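Quick one: structure tokens for this chain, please?
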Amino acid sequence: MFIGICGSICAGKRTIARYLVDHHGFTQLYLGSGPSSGADDAVDGVTPPSNSSLSNTSDSPNDQHTFSTPDDLLDFVTKRWRERWVTTDIPSEPVLDLYTRRPFFLLLSVDAPLTVRWRRFQARQTHLLSSTTTTGPKETPETLETFVALSDAHLYNPTTGTHPLLARATVRLLNTSPSLAHLYATLGKLDLLNPDRLRPSWDSYFMSLASLAAQRSNCMKRRVGCVVVRDKRVISTGYNGTPRGLRNCGEGGCGRCNSGDGSSGGGLATCLCIHAEENALLEAGRERLRDGAVLYCDTCPCRTCSIKIVQVGVGEVVYSQGYSMDGETAAVFREAGVKLRQFVPPANGLIHLEKPELST
């Protein structure tokens, strides 16, 4: 596994790299002359003690872990991809493009509000100034205006800005952690090494297809997508909307969906929309389903759909989001011997580290 970390100034990217090294057996890799100064090490104005491994991320690396070019670094990792590697040296999008060709690469980004990063920067300056010798001129502390300009250049410079890298990260961490202990405890709950983030499991793969199908929905009430598979092969897909030949729901075709009634599951008898599950089953047909078929749906099927799912012989239903009829649907499946389970993928996208309970 090869993890790349990018981030804004004083967001904590080097601290997260050190976390992976110290707690998960990663080895850090560098480009150029080796690690730079630890501008990201202070967390919310608290600088690690001098005897802490976090107080100095510029420990001299072994020569074999410093590379003159990204190609050399990637070649080294490719030959050792079963081991764990991490780098914070991603200088540009072309370098990121190079790394993302490999199936074992994962990009993390870390950011924090400007005020939080400014406090960390001030804490670092205070720590550095207090540790300098009394001889010679004192270093003048940076102003907020100078820091903002430095941060803007780091993120938005047309040539070297890192903002495009942050936008492409699979996992985007918002690090407002008040202490290193809190940061480490929160990171420990994220399961960052989950292999699903590198190569989706079958559940992740088929649920992603169901979510993609939902994007075709024209229903004004709720977008739903569905995929039916057998032997890990897609048999059919479906999404909800009005029947063929009728005006689309989004164009006023279904009075019930366009009425603005906010109740979930109410008035289904007057609804003209065919549900995603129904469309997928109609497309597949009973002869193509047979025993062993699995239905993936990004929303738990309603009771009406559950009866039809049972009738065509689907053996298992996997869903992502709950619905108002989950209990009734579960009762139907339980009596019919159809397995029902909810799939919860590892957290990706934006994750606020101030709220670790969301990732448990």
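The chain is about 35% helix and 15% strand.
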